[in-house]
Amino acid sequence: MITHRYVYDLFPGTFQTVELVAENPGTWLLHCHVADHIHAGMETTYTINKSGAVSETS
Ligand SMILES: [Cu+2]
């Protein structure tokens, strides 16, 4: 069973591995909701091309 989730709650010092199904073309933002982390640059974008290929864009 595939579960679609867009948000994960994490405790400090932990991580989550996710599997991406590249089915929605466009450029997407990957980030957390800790303001200090965003200001420190801990965010990125990735692009899903129409072919389904994924590339990091920043
Ligand atoms: Cu963070």
UniProtKB/TrEMBL annotation:
Enzyme type, top EC level: oxidoreductase
Keyword set, alphabetical order: Metal-binding
SUPFAM superfamilies: Cupredoxins
Matches recorded under InterPro entries: Cu-oxidase_C, Cu_oxidase_CS, Cu_oxidase_Cu_BS, Cupredoxin
Keyword Metal-binding: yes
Domain Plastocyanin-like positions: 5-49
A GO term, aspect molecular function: ferroxidase activity
UniProt keyword annotation of Metal-binding present: yes
The enzyme's E.C. designation: 1.16.3.1
Domain of life: Eukaryota
Protein name: ferroxidase
